[in-house]
Amino acid sequence: MANEIQTIRVDDVEYVRKDSIKGERQEITTDEFVIARGQGGVYMGYLKKRTDFSVTLRDARKLWKWAGAQNLNDLSQNGTNKPQECRFPPMVDEIILTGQWFEIQSVTPIAKKSLMDVPVWTKF
User: Distance between CA 119 and CA 85 in Å, rounded?
Assistant: First the structure.
């Protein structure tokens, strides 16, 4: 019974009980370089894994502040033309971002080079 998907029919429409499909959500594994924006801010890195409720990035940096791009679409396509004005803290090996993610964008090779060339920002 634990692995059975439970359904109910109402007005000739079949509904699936949400807690009966645990562990069956689609998990996507990739090695694509992306920008992810959500409740915790904006990050860039290699998309290692994505599920319904989390994103795992490898070699990730938080984009604390950026300049030289109008928005994330511009940043993911063209990068920045003002790297000295950007504030990207040091890279971490891996980060798991949880919660509601609003946007995950692929980054072009030109934008990736531009973003990776932004100097490491520290408050010290």
Answer: 10
